[in-house]
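User: For documentation purposes, I need each entry recorded in a consistent format: the amino acid sequence on its own, followed directly by the corresponding structure tokens. There are two entries in this batch. Please keep commentary to a minimum and don't merge the entries.

Assistant: Recorded as requested. Entry 1:
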Amino acid sequence: MNEKPIKGIGVDAGTRGNPGPCFYRGVCLESGNVLFYKELGVGTNNIGEFLAVCHAIHYLKKRNINTPIYSDSVTAIAWVRRAQHNTKFRGEINEKLDSAVDFLKSNTFTYDVKKWITKEWGEIPADFGRK
């Protein structure tokens, strides 16, 4: 059994319908404070999850902080590691996707993006409770 992390940023996304209005947030695992929240327009949950991780990377890089980033989305983590999304969804949100991919490809970072293990630790603190 893995020990539940107490340091880092937890991110999660949600939609109202999928696709539908899409949003995400990042939460400090130590304090529970919301560090950022963004409404994205119409998109998919995978897009929101990916953009949430990218936002967390940008947030940490801008502040010169090195702490783990946790996401419960295997898809988002894979897209970040490849610095490429794999969505067929088309809409205005694709501009944000392209910008996030450009950011990942044009910056070096060593942030540890880890999988949140929901079965062991419960819902990620950034969860929107929409299940």
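Entry 2:
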Amino acid sequence: MSSAAAQAYARVANTTSSPRDIEAQALLTAANKLHAVMVDTNATYSQTFDALMFNRKLWSIFLSEAQRDSNPQPLEVRQNIANIGIFVLSHTAALQISPQREHFKPLIEINRNIAAGLSGRP
């Protein structure tokens, strides 16, 4: 498939996907990036930093959205998302300072578990 065709397919997929599906895919992308640098003993600092920044940006969006007054989710759900987001952001920041492979696992698990919940998978 050509690059232009792949990009067109991605645009159509995004327009036909629900917001929950898009969020789940973004979480899985973040989890996969983190997992890739966790298992690759030759991962560069740049690759590690890029994976952590992707996760940080994603969770910054989730946290901002949870704090928005016009968010339609119940307050309890928004508070839970905010609590998880604060943990993820602080854990991600700690890994940016001192990337220890074994400490990537909680972030990967959180992202995959929430993605599964958004997708309706166990």
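Summary note for entry 2:
The CA atoms of residues 25 and 115 lie 7 Å apart.
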